[in-house]
Automatic annotation (TrEMBL):
Gene3D superfamilies: 2.70.98.10, Galactose-binding domain-like (2.60.120.260), Glycosidases (3.20.20.80), Immunoglobulins (2.60.40.10)
Superkingdom of the source species: Bacteria
InterPro entries assigned to the protein according to its UniProt record, in alphabetical order: B-gal_small/dom_5, Bact_Beta-galactosidase, Beta-gal/glucu_dom_sf, Gal_mutarotase_sf_dom, Galactose-bd-like_sf, GH, GH-type_carb-bd, Glyco_hydro_2
Name of this protein: beta-galactosidase
Signal sequence segment: 1-19
Ranges where the Glycoside hydrolase family 2 catalytic domain occurs: 289-414
Keywords on record: Calcium, Glycosidase, Hydrolase, Signal
Quaternary data: Monomer.
Molecular function, one GO term: beta-galactosidase activity
Residue ranges constituting the Glycosyl hydrolases family 2 sugar binding domain according to the UniProt record: 53-186
Reaction catalysis annotation: Hydrolysis of terminal non-reducing beta-D-galactose residues in beta-D-galactosides
Broad EC category: hydrolase
Organism, scientific name: Pedobacter rhizosphaerae
Amino acid sequence: MKRRFILFLCLLPMFSALKAQQTEKLYLSGTGNDQTVNWDFFCTAGANSGKWTTIPVPSNWELQGFGQYNYGFNKEANKGKEQGLYKYNFKVPADWKNRKINIVFEGSMTDTEVKINGKLAGEIHQGSFYVFRYDISKLIKIGSDNLLEVKVSKHSANQSVNEAERKADFWIFGGIFRPVYLESLPQSHIERVQIDAKADGNFIANLSFIGDADKVEVVLTGKDGKRFGNKFSTAIAKGTKKVALNNQFEQPAVWSSEFPNLYKATFTLLKNGKEVHQITKNIGFRTIEVRERDGVYVNGVKMKFKGVNRHSFYPTSGRTTSKKISIDDVLLMKEMNMNAVRMSHYPPDGHFLDVCDSLGLFVMDELAGWHGTYNTPTGTKLLREMMWNDENHPSIVFWANGNEGGHNRELDHLFPEEDIQKRPVIHPWEVFGGFETTHYREFNYGIGNYDHGHNILMPTEFLHGMFDGGHGAGIEDYWNAMWNNPLSAGGFLWDFADQGVVRTDKNGELDTDGNHGPDGIVGPYHEKEGSFYTIKEVWSPVFVERREMTAGFDGSFQVENRYAFTNLNQCSFSWKLSSFKSANDDAIFKGAKIDAPNIRPFEKGKLKINLPADWRSFDALYLTANSPDGKELFTWSFPIALPKDDAEKIVITKGPAKINIKESSTNYEVSANGINLTFDKTTGLLKTAKNAKGIIPFSNGPFLQEGENNFKGFSYKMDGQNLVISSKFDKKESFNTLEWTVYPSGWLKMQVKYFPSAYFTTFVGLNFSYPESEIKSVNYKGNGPYRVWKNRMKGNQFGIWQKDYNNSATGEAPWQYPEFKGYYSDLYWCEFVGKTQHFKVVTDREDVFLRLFTPKKSKDTEYDNMSPTFPNGDISFMNGISAIGTKTQKPETTGPMGMKHVFYDFDKEPSRALDMTLYFGFSGK
């Protein structure tokens, strides 16, 4: 025991020396919204104002029930001008004596005055999203209590800060919303390290320090903890405070979004051989190069950025987030096969950049500014704060100087002056620096630039995803153009998540400020919308060409490798055959893994499945591609059986008794095997359907949509045991025809041959009436589970789906997805489950769309660009459906898929008519 105690005493000085050379942190606040510390708090106006209480730090005070909510634009001159007064008592460790002590704020909105023990720590900090610090070494008391007092003014005394931040198109929150901590350093310490590690292994660093030192050493370690390369050092000339370091490393594992290889670079400051300070930075070896009139190259490879804009945001805590939220956000982006993210419109939390480094996302980091700009002195200070905090993250490949006119051009020169890596500077929404980044170009206008311009094309915002418009709707057309144009460097969607904030003043209501905030691919709590899966398929780095499952299919798929750095033999593939039973029963599966083909980046080749001899007896084939880390890139589905095959199995024609028909002056009344049907003699429409349980409330169809309802001259006849009721074709007056066939089984067949009423049509098909109050759910075979638009067809899978009724509207409470109402593609059959009755509709035609009711029309802008149009009636069976626009573009300007349908046939030849054939099973069995 005595020997152990002596050993401890011997080791204690070594531990103390090790500690003395490190930068130490002591958090005064929590680290995020999942770990906070209560401080004393006083709010000067709005809710819960005029009294001292407590508030968790970090936080935005509105989300804690204080002050006033306001959504930017500074719409009300006197709104959102409250101040927050904070107090917190803290102690400083005794062994921090004779060390430099800083207090660090990672983010505070907006003007922040800091006092320690009643004395100002320094000038008031103006600007919300930047890490700032004060040297408080002379203000603190070691070994006794210290008082921290902070006054935060939501409205800045600096009008340029208000112009750049408060008038922006996003929620404005007040308070200390990022962590606060004390930072302890030895008197001689490293102040700043700027690192440039190239893909070829060339390592350059500029180091500045304070105090006295004569040497600096650098050691790199890999993820395995082992040293990479040799330790190297540089002597420091007497009287200098800056030193340049250079070394060549052999064959480093380079960093990219596909392979985010990181190293730890440890810098040690020495004096007379003694270590006086040491810091460690995560770095990545990678090279960013902009080639004029060509593109952006990463590690020598030309890039297409598949990006999204992302706010630092969470519904219950505003701009206060956490590392967990950062991880969740990046994982969702990676799940959508994105490789890039833009910081809109300010620098993010440090942990978000850490996660982009470690998981692999290219980042555009942005100095705040939205139509308004910081003045030059303020912008200079804030730009340097951003640079000092973020500059060494390998994920950052662009800097952005403000947004949409919020560019202070006097600051442009500072980016390359401050950045050792000389990363490109972007002016979002502008032609600048060889980049065309203009936002929300209409497809034809934008593609005109793509085809005839000379700048590198990279819209920093495109396809504004308000409610259900944009994002997936239009992206296939845009991406096909971007992918195939050599001047395109990709682009960034607007935006990642709905900005729905919990209103503590409105009983917890989630508020998006009308149509300002619901722009996300995911909801406020990361609920996945339909566009999520469309983007996932369109941006899959494994592109699978469309093909049909014909009898001659030999199991070969044409695939394209759209990775930049990954050979497809590093991925994994599998296939699965499925025989469906029902939505609630397990299917029969057969499947296996596939040998990954040797296809290099940007090349095409074959992926071969060794199919069993009985493969055509299954309903569908599924093909799955996984990334090198095992994550699903996408699963493609290919129907094997056709609708006519299902119809032959499901529809029963034979029955035990003959069909009875009674003719009145207005109706045909038909009965067969317990099913009673009434048809209007003049129009031919189905008026009622009845079984043993009573009337099925499905009627008043087929009523043509964007076609003339000119069915005329009805008559009936027996065709064997079947009853046929049909209209008479006339090229001028009744060129659309309707034929009903009633089978002895009670099944009913409908065949409509029709011509659209115009050359251009929004949609074509036929409608029926069915009360929405009656529906409980549907079971259907087709693509699902998400609805589609004409310009958003990808992302679903073929199968049998069970969907319970909901009245959800995209981007609005309750954010319940998948939505129920809307269009569904590739219908085979559907069972409608009502509160009192259920019935089945089957088709033997391909490419039929099912329409379920009319979704709520969300409040559009004054331009009404989304235009989510739906047919009349309640239930529709369509040959063509409508597209949807975005906040800034009408459907037809999002690309060819968003345009109206085009039909040409004015001679009304029956052989050229559209054909809709449906079978109805009304027995309720």
